[in-house]
Amino acid sequence: MAIVTLSSDIGLRDFAVGAIKGQLLSALPGITITDISHYLSQTNFPQAAYICQAAIGHYPPETIHLILVNCFETPVKYFLLARYRDQWLICPDNGILTMITREKPSTLLQLDCTGTKTLLDITASIISHLPALLKQSQRLPGKPTQQIVENYPLRPTVGPDWMDGQILFIDQFENVVINITKEEFEEQRRGRTFRFAFNRNEVIDGLSDNFSSVTGTSKLAWFNSAGYLEIAIRHGNIAGLFGLQGYADPSSNGSGTYDSRMLYQTVRVFFD
Q1: pLDDT tens profile 29-39
Q2: pTM (2 decimals)?
Q3: How many Å apart are CA 270 and CA 164, to the nearest integer?
Q4: Does residue 2 have a pLDDT over 80?
Q5: CA–CA gap between residue 30 and residue 139 (Å, rounded)
């Protein structure tokens, strides 16, 4: 049974998500449709990519992921269809693809959307290509391409005895995710002791397994299920208490596109 996931920046307050699901079920009866998130940021591509990338790996092979983020930044002529590991990703050609995959996928095709005016026009055009994608014996739909917009996530900066990460995401409990993966941390750590510093004089010593590892309202740091560093306060909200925020873009001109010059608050790891 085919699985299609939906991710978007359109929210759930109007009819759009329900209409897209209706389009999918009309064209592909019997498919399973599931939501990842409909509250992705239209401009914060690192945050949107983090949410999508963290979820995608948990789906069965051959799942199709339809990602609708900042679709109307430029006139829509086509969407991208990409093979990412054993999954299929469909998204605008605006840089969100490589933000999610962290590499340029080898299988890339353009799905024609010429003449579309509304979001539902776009999704109808995309969905018309899906029957061919689901029939493995047929040639893949779309036109092969290698010319795409490429943007990549900010990586931590490192020195001999330190590592700087930026705030990537703040969840509904105001726990703060940092763009340092466990693999990057261990590579830089090299067996040394360490401490995490933020907001001038605030320090967290060591790593915890989960919230039950600390007592009261203690601060803690751990690597979450997506493999990223996360800091929090047990029974508290670390972002609100210490004024931690995501990015601020001083060069914003209302374009809605990802800008590598965005300014991020930093969490530093000191190695001893």
Answers
A1: 999 999 999 99
A2: 0.88
A3: 9
A4: yes
A5: 22
